[in-house]
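cache lookup: miss for this entity combination. No prior model stored, computing from scratch. Input as submitted by user K.M.:
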Amino acid sequence: MPAYSLNINNKNYTVEADAEMPLLWVLRDLLDLTGTKYGCGVASCGACTVIIDDNAVFACRRTVGNCVNKKIITIEGLSEDGSHPVQKAWQQAAVPQCGYCQPGQMMSAAALLIKNKRPSEPRDQ
Amino acid sequence: MKKEKIDRRNFIKLSSLATGSLAIGFMVPGLKALAIPVTECEFFQPNAYLKIDKKGKVTVYVAKQESGQGVDTALPMIVAEEMDVDFRNVRSEIAPYGTMKAGEHDTGGSQSVMTMYASLRNAGAVAKTMLVAAAAEIWKTDVKNCAADNGEVVNTINMQRIKYGDLVCRAALLPLPKTVSLKNPKDFKLIGKPEKRSNVKDVLTGKAKYGLDIKLDGMLYAVAERCPVLDGTLVSVDDTAARKVPGVIKIVSYTGTGAPMHVRAGVAVIATNTWAAIRAKELLQITWDEGKKNKESTDVLFKTFEAKAGSKPQVPVFNKGDVTKFSGKNEISADYAQPFLAHATIEPMNFVAAAKANSLELWGGLQLPDWAVNTIAEVSGIKKENIKLNLTLMGGAFGRRLHFDFAIEAVKIAQQVDKPVKLMWERTEDILHSMYRPANYHRLTANTAGGKLVSWQHHILGTPVSYMTEGPGSKNFDEVNSADAGFWYDVPNISTGYTPVDININRGWVRSVDICVNTFPIECFIDELAASLKKDPLDFRLSLLENRKDYTFGKEPMLLTQSPARIAGVLKMAADKIGYSNKRKPNHFIGLATHAFIFAKAFAAHAIEIEMLEPWKFTIKRVVAAIDCGLVINPDGLLNQMQGGFVFGLTQALKGEITVKDSRVMQDGFSGYELLRFDEMPPIEILVAASTEEPGGVGEVGVSTVAPALCNALAAAGHRPRTLPIRKAGYSWV
């Protein structure tokens, strides 16, 4: 089994995994980073969203072989203490109900803020 | 108390307070008997529901299972209110399984607040009473001179104060009070004020552990391929290729079960990680015996419904007056159809089991853990007392985890391997093999005379849940339990009947259960009748509600009260807020619908305003929901439930549909079974009726009025959909 060096949340990890193993299962099963959630496995729900090199990426469809030499951020690394602006906003609005999909939702929002510091609401009403 | 030496379970027994018939858990024989010096005490736990430590921090053990409905906040609020503590010093924990009374862990039917309200008030009041008594002892004064105040006891004579935390060890030595007095609800400080969810921070940092996040030493991962046809059997499996996948540990098969859960026969791949298990599963070559019932379809089912709708209902449900005397006179009839629906919880089903020769340890979310453990004991041959269950957070449930097929499977798999196993259902399996909300069909027939509705006939046809849970002989039909007398409109002659129709597909309870399948046909048909009588739909409804007194029916313990006045109340609130009587903008239409979920003493209405963009294309401009559920514990939680209920209801109205061909479900993921998307969510306003009635439950009530309100708006615009989802009629929306 090949070994891969991964940079996740500014820490280096080495994992032995099939090259095709999606990052989602590397995070969850091999590294115990279970904040990234499985929802569909086919990039349709977004529960597994992580940030790779400043882009929101569905971890269920990104193979570990394609994660080397990249900067991966998961919900556990969004901030040390829940103080990322997205986390604070989510807390203030008490967003989560069951909360299962929220790590993915927040990583999506955090990735948006990397690209666009002041996004406006696309609303027509 | 030296907690490391004392097993909590041994000290918690059940008893009842002299104040009423309520049983509360409390600690026996009490710490006095143990003679633990006050200095060694760490916390005071007067009953199974709460403990308070020396810093004054309160832990509330929540008996009900959290799946996003907010019991982890609403239930602790009830305790904190009677305890008189600052809610910021209260945290909630899942009550360890087995520490509550039988049935108290059960979570469903919007019952959590209703059924726990009295017990939790008592539990909080007991703690407060004992803390006050402890202070009185210290001050050598009468308890009458002591009062609880926000985490402290005040000596009302000299205004000295002692913090609760400084009293816990003394309180732990006191006998339980024979009686406690509860607050007058007028004096509530916490109940009725919005509180944000207590566990939010763990969710926001990815630390919250759902069932799927459980990890144990040496734990293996499993996925399974299940027989595509319910109650089919495994003939053979060729796993040669699958076994070669690196990481695969073992491939096992297991047999299906009949009622209550109809677990399908399956083949499970057990591996060192989920990915290896999924890959290997795809390489399995399995031959199934599908049995004789492998050609059934929803096409045939709905044709059967339609064919039988004109016959006499198989099961009479409710008769009042004589509907036959108006037969054929000013008669209007319409048929309505609703499909099978899936729960589609975002966390797919999963369960962890560790099996030893004579014992089991289990981890996962279960809404009915007692029933699950009893059944698992039977299936596994392990004695119930040797089964330890650890309940976890659920990533949505909507009734899916009332069923425990996945837990039985995990046990069957774990018994074939010597390490703990986490079974995960892939999304495909989750949609393909759910416990679907029954498909149902309705023929409504009514007669009018002199401008009035004089007769109402409702033939309900459905695929009963109980055929699955109890077997085909069952006569418990959830769709009609109390649908009869609970019908809210005042009509002199009524005949309601039910015809069960079977199909070889599993079904079960889905949020907005039981009689809620009748809201769509009733609330659409009442609009149709108003139109035929040239009456306004709101005025017509009110004329059938407003003069009707509350009435009680059913038998203990399911004595139910219908309150037409409360239904009329929420209907008027919703209609007023949306500006129902104002002149509409061009191409704007408003639809209304109302109902009662009387099992949870809750009444709700939706008013939906749409704009028609093209003849078959619309946009929802505004939604107003109104609810009367008695005393509200946490208004913020109520808003969440009503918003979530609307999303659930709009999904059902627009696109939710499970279809069956060759006894197989044709949808296998979110692409086939679509849920509402962000950009489809209209603005929603929620109104809450002020009420001092006992608290009801809010999980179910806000769902089933969405589809009829929308369809009534569409009908006002010109075309009435009578089949859900409405996209089948050719509607699109933006």
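stored under new cache key. Chain B has a mean pLDDT of 92.
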